[in-house]
Amino acid sequence: MKIVKRILIILVILGLIGAGVYYYMQPEEIEVVVADTGSVSPKLTMTGNVEGNEALTVYADVSGRVTHKYVKTGERVNAGDMLLSYTDDTQRYAVDVAETNIEYEQKIIDSIKSSRATNQKKVNDANVRIKQCEAVYANVKFNIMALDAGKYEHDYDRQRQKQIIENDILKMQDEVSSDQSKLAKIEAELKKAELLEEKKDVSKLVEEAKRIQDNISETNSAISKNQRDIVCLPIEGMDPATYNAYQLLQNDLETVTRLWSEARTDRDTAQSMVRAYDDILGNEQKMALDELSLNQAMNELEKAGSGCVAPSDGVITKCYVDDGAAVEKGAPVFEMQKADDYRVKLLVSKYDITSVKPGQTAVVKIGDIQYHGKVDTISQYAEADSSGKSRAVVYITLFTTDTLIVGMEADVVIDLEETGDVLKVLNECIYADDNGSYVYIVDKESKVRKRYVMTGIKDSTFTQIVDGIDNGTHIVYDPAASEYEDTVIEEKIL
């Protein structure tokens, strides 16, 4: 009996061992899915930051020193709020200088115009006297020549002497014209020195002017004498009565030629002065420039008094100055963002940006509050992220009237374009390493194999497979798929 019991126990043990061996020799049953075609509705999930709908730089309105800064970084401002105040010493000085220049130029112009008007009147009066002298001279000359008519007109010596005297008169008239031009220039310089109150020695100019005036007077006297001599050339054979009449006419001729000479001198000198004043009336142009400078200085003073104000509603994001800082006109003093609308700024990788298009809808979550939005702008200039990698900049416009905090982090889900009739697999079946994305497939021998694939778009459930497997391929759907690589399994198709 004992032998039989022992044999039975041994048989039971052998049976259990055999069952265990059989169990462990059976293939593992693993869940698999079949790759097939269909639609993928991808979504891009990212994190960005809330911004105002437009970034603005506020520049200094004037050059000067900041007396007070009224806002800090992060404060919300309204359009027209005072941001900075300036000292206005520089602008007030510029206004004072411009006003002084205008007053001074006006003084010069008024004096020049007055002197010009005086000399123009002298020219007009002299022209009247010249015409009167010309008429008297012509009449006296006619009467003198009448005494001599028909008797001496063919006297060769008399004509030759007359020609010599006339040539001398022409030369002296040229000298007078040259001296008058010199005198006009000296007079203009003296007048300008007087108006501008220049502290310089003008005695040499005064002496030169006197010398030229004396020379003009002497030359004109000589001209008058020669003109008289032409008419009064000696006449022989004249009877006493005729000679007495001749002497009286000669005296009249001497008087009228002297007056005529003085009138010409006065006219020519005054006319030169008129022309000289015309030359220096360029002060009117300078005054126009000074008036323009005054207007500009007044505008700058008004800007300095008004201070720097916010151009729109928004939030101050950067401040470049403090109380007491010196600023130059046009230098940036604040950065701010308009906050009448909001947007979210995203930095998108080079792999995802090709799927993002303007107009795509988005869901934006800030804390526990969800907002709707859309892709508004894709910048054509990339920015570096915190790791230094270049990223495309995408702005999402938010549809909300809430007041948001600029700079707050926001979670964004963008609805990308749906793609139909593509090969796809469940997202859980796809893994990745340094060589790329891969899946575990079941081959014809029921063995698990690692297979690298090229992926495309994906949504919350499926990922598009561009290359690496075919439609109908069996894919291992098990978190521990790597443990079954190169082993035979029993498939459980889901």
Give structural notes:
This protein is α+β, with helices and mostly antiparallel strands and 494 residues long. The chain folds into three domains: 2-42 and 418-493, Beta Barrel (conserved putative lor/sdh protein from methanococcus maripaludis s2 fold), CATH 2.40.420; 44-81 and 313-415, Beta Barrel (Elongation Factor Tu (Ef-tu), domain 3), CATH 2.40.30; 94-282, no CATH class. The chain has six helices and 22 strands. It has a six-stranded antiparallel beta sheet with strand order 2-16-20-19-18-17, with no helix packed on it. A six-stranded antiparallel beta barrel has the order 3-10-14-12-11-15. The protein has a four-stranded antiparallel beta sheet with strand order 7-6-4-9. Helix 2 (89-147) packs antiparallel against helix 3 (156-196) and helix 2 runs antiparallel to helix 6 (283-306). The model is unreliable at 149-156 (pLDDT under 50).
Number of helices: 6
Largest sheet features? 6 strands, antiparallel
Estimated share of beta-strand residues: 25-35%
Distance between the termini: 55 Å
Structural class from helices and strands?
A: alpha+beta
What do the pLDDT scores average to? 81
User: What characteristic shape results from the CA principal axes?
Assistant: rod-shaped
Q: How do the SSEs run, as a string of H and E?
A: HEEEEEEHHHHHEEEEEEEEEEEEEEEE
Let me know the number of strands: 22
Count of discrete structural domains: 3
Fraction of residues in helix: 40-55%
Low-confidence stretches: 149-156
Radius of gyration: 56 Å
Question: In what order do the strands lie side by side in the largest sheet?
Answer: 2-16-20-19-18-17
